[in-house]
Amino acid sequence: MLASIIDDVVKGNTSRFDDRKIDILAKITISVESCKGFA
To answer: How many Cβ atoms from other residues are within 10 Å of residue 7's Cβ?
Structure first.
């Protein structure tokens, strides 16, 4: 997934990168919250 983001940035697909970055940040936040819940 990270490789495709880097590929997008290299190709200049910054709008797609921004959308995906927000999506990834949301997923990371959910993952962290889930870990806190299980801890």
So the answer is: 11
From CA 27, how far away is CA 11, in angstroms rounded? 24
Q: How confident is the model at residue 39 (pLDDT cuts 50, 70, 90)?
A: low
- pLDDT exceeds cutoff 70 at 4: yes
- Tokens 């970055």 correspond to 21
What six digits make up the tokens of 14? 């910054």
The Cα–Cα gap between 32 and 13 comes to: 28
Percentage of the chain modeled with pLDDT above 90: 0
